[in-house]
Specification:
Length: about 110
């Protein structure tokens, strides 16, 4: 058996040269967009850092309030205080306290 030679395909030659760079206008637009993205990401990072600081400060203030509430509970037997006037809102006293340590059950 004789082998047949396959015909070689000729490569198409592109006579139009490919550009090496984008235009100056396109480059400026790309650089402007990337710069805008970078600036926004930096600003978001600053905001997140500030948010973290504020949340930490909030936790500290909440801890201080908890300690103050414990003091008020010990001193006044309540933490129900009107924050505008400072009036203490004592819980109503139970006229019929339960006997023998039992709780008053209402069905």
């Amino acid at each position: 058996m004789a082998k047949t030679k396959k015909a070689k395909k000729e490569k198409a030659v592109d006579l139009k040269p490919r550009p090496e760079k984008v235009t100056d206008e396109q480059l400026a637009k790309i650089q402007n967009s990337v710069s805008g993205i970078n600036n926004h990401q930096i600003e978001i990072g600053r905001m997140e850092t500030r948010k973290h600081q504020l949340l930490h400060n909030l936790g500290t203030i909440q801890d201080q309030l908890t300690l103050l509430q414990e003091e008020l509970q010990k001193e006044y037997n309540t933490i129900d205080i009107n924050i505008d006037t400072g009036d203490i809102n004592y819980p109503p006293e139970n006229p019929n306290p339960p006997e023998n340590g039992e709780t008053n059950k209402e069905d």
